[in-house]
Amino acid sequence: MLNSILRSLAAPLVVLGLTGHPAMPLEPAASDKKHDVHGMDMKCMADMNGVPMSAMGPSMAAMECHMYVTALRPAQPGDEEKAKAVVAAVKATMEKYKDYKKAIADGYIQANPKVKQPQYHFNNAAYGREANSHFDPSKPTSLLYIETPTQSFKLEGVMFTAAPNATEDELNERIPLSVAHWHKHINFCGAPADKTAEYHGDHPKFGMFGSIHTKEACDAARGTFFPTMFTWMIHVFPLEDDAKEVFSLNDDVPHAR
Q1: What is the residue-averaged pLDDT of the chain?
Q2: According to the model, what pLDDT value does residue 4 have?
Q3: Which of 11, 140, 232, 241 minimizes the number of CB atoms within 10 Å of its CB?
Q4: Torsions phi, psi of 203, nearest 5?
Q5: In the structure, what pLDDT confidence band is assigned to residue 168 with cuts at 50, 70 and 90?
Q6: More confident residue, 10 or 149
Q7: Interacting residues of 108 by C-beta distance below 8 A, sequence separation 6+
Q8: What's the first-to-final CA gap in the chain, in angstroms?
Q9: Are 20 and 205 in contact (CB under 8 A)?
């Protein structure tokens, strides 16, 4: 059932992730979506843990009620050093994969290669499986490339994942929650077979951008409700000059010089 739902998610969605993760619209329509707390119910606001939609960029913010973002924790001794060690490891990995062909040779596969995207995810399924139980900062689940006027694939960062049932304490052990926000996608209502066209359009009911975000509403619409979709995720952009942007939630702006 899940695979059939995901296969039905085509343009204008960019398909990302190891199982076809619907991540962002190609052309977010600001006039159709509210990207601040206005229009969000209290549950959605609670899921954001105080993170403003403006910090996420329109692509992530378009998923309003389908995002859970971890809250920032008080800094603990060693947190900053641990985060810096992860960033250093990411930089070393990125040196290896500046040439995307080397990434492909090591098992990274481009997601949705026929669709023009603001950010291209090259995913390594084996590393994704390893990440469910073990964190190795030299083996990111995804490499994040952008297109520039002179380069088809310029590496700007990586994405790490963790098992969907991982606790926030476990995430904190990987990359401290005092430094960065992990996120996951939630409250997904899969459309019934005769309504899959409603994933698309300006005002979808179903899917990651849909107005339906509760099991009750999904059941009433004959949909299939998934409280959590995919894995925990976090992006790392070590080429950023501003330290606050190294773990940015905004995928709509380039993070590479």
Answers
A1: 82
A2: 33
A3: 241
A4: -130, 70
A5: very high
A6: 149
A7: 97, 100, 122, 123, 124, 142, 143
A8: 42
A9: no
The burial of 5, by beta-carbon neighbours within 10 Å (0-12 exposed, 13-18 middle, 19 or more buried), is given as: buried
For residue 34, pLDDT beyond 70: no
Extract the tokens encoding 61. Answer: 């913010």
Classify 137 as helix, strand or coil.
Answer: coil
Give DSSP secondary structure letters for 39-100.
Answer: T--HHHHHHHTT--GGGTHHHHHTTGGGEEEPPPPPP-TTHHHHHHHHHHHHHHHHHHTSSH
Mean pLDDT (whole number) for 115-122: 88
Number of Cβ atoms within 10 Å of the Cβ of 207? 25
Residue 135 belongs to what domain range? 1-257
Residue type, 189: C
Beta bridge partners of 154: 146
Number of domains in the chain: 1
Give the percent of the chain with pLDDT over 90.
55
pLDDT at 56: 77
Q: What is the largest CA-CA distance in the chain?
A: 54
